[in-house]
């Protein structure tokens, strides 16, 4: 694993601990990060804007429905908003890897990454 990716994973882990009060599963966090590919290095695509409705739809459609295989329903957007609220409104742009990590755990879909 490259130094840049390793440094980002350490940063993501610190946010999970700080914002969610959880000890991160480092192996799972690395798998989620790997699943995002080079987008983690792009300032725009590496973040999720909690106030951009179009962005939230993208998270729902591309991650929850396509990647995790969940059926569409109001609970998907509720889960996204719950994760973003816990992350905190003080953080305007939230790390996509952390959001996806939390959503996969929320729905018990860690096995998707095995």
Short overview:
This protein is mainly alpha-helical.
Could you please describe the fold and organization of this structure?
The structure is a single chain. The protein is mainly alpha-helical. The protein has a single domain (3-113), classed as Recoverin, domain 1, CATH 1.10.238.120. Helices cover 60% and strands 5% of the residues. It has 5 helices and 2 strands; from the N terminus they run ααβααβα. It has helices spanning 3-20, 26-35, 53-67, 74-87, 96-106, and strands spanning 47-49, 93-95. The chain has a two-stranded antiparallel sheet with strand order 1-2. Helix 1 (3-20) crosses helix 2, helix 2 crosses helix 5 and helix 4 (74-87) crosses helix 5 (96-106). It is globular, with a radius of gyration of 13 Å.
Write the SSE topology.
Blueprint: H1 3-20, H2 26-35, E1 47-49, H3 53-67, H4 74-87, E2 93-95, H5 96-106
Q: What are its keywords?
A:
114 residues, mainly alpha, Recoverin, domain 1, 5 helices, 60% helix
Q: How would you classify the helix and strand content by structural class?
A: mainly alpha
Uncertain residue ranges = none
Number of E-state strands: 2
The CATH topology label is Recoverin, domain 1
Bulk shape: globular
Question: What is the overall number of helices?
Answer: 5
